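Narrative of activities, Objective 1.

The group set out to show that a structural description can be obtained from nothing but a protein's sequence at a throughput compatible with the screening campaign. Below is one input-output pair from the validation batch, recorded exactly as produced.
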Amino acid sequence: MYYNISRKFFINYIIIFANYITIWGIKLINELGEIGTSGGVLLKMWEVIVQSGSRPLVRHSHIRFEITLITAGSGIYTVGDKKYAIKPYEIFVFASNEQHCVTEVGKDGLKMINLHFEPRYLWGRSFDRLSNVNTNFCFQHSPNFENCIPADRARQIRGLFTSAAEEFSKKEPEYALQIKSLLNMIIVALIRDFGYFDSTLPESKDKNRIIRKATEYIDTHFQENLTLETLAGLSGLTPNYFSSLFSKVSGIKLWDYINSRRIEAAMQLL
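Output recorded for this entry:
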């Protein structure tokens, strides 16, 4: 019953939002491909064409990590309190739950390719996943990191990104594995070459492991009537401490994460 009510609410929310963005100029969305499991879509890529004109600021954010390649056109990207001029061949990077919105599109319109992936897409065995110091890579970045990577500095990432798009287009044997490899190379480049993550932050393997397991549980049970007490109990922590630790480690509040998972599930039902 609880999920039925939540699902109805979020479906209505998504329909309103979809109508809203259509009114303000998204003319074409071309799906390039997606990778998923029985638990849902883990990674997807699509091309967007946007009409010229001003667009209202919408505090848009989502759980999925986002990488965007600008292929043509111009405009303004508003990210928090910052504004970035949009130019061809630039790369934009947004952490999970980081608010961003295209608020201005130049006279020639705007074309871009978006890549979204869920944090759990990066979770693997101990030898082929991010180290503990970068375990919350998807949820936060160094305050010194700039969301826009200029075209002249983005050549390597741009090449890897377009290769991923080509893999979706050709769908040759093991293309999903190749896309994962290309994404891993993009992530390493962000860390090494662009100061994405603050390596001076203290590392806590135990805390990271607790929140990783809690997130995995949420990802498979978010349709249920989850309670703070239940999640804290599974982690062996008090509710207040668990809630605080989740926010500190992941960079997003516990219920913001849960509700975002429910919204994304509702979107899949449309």
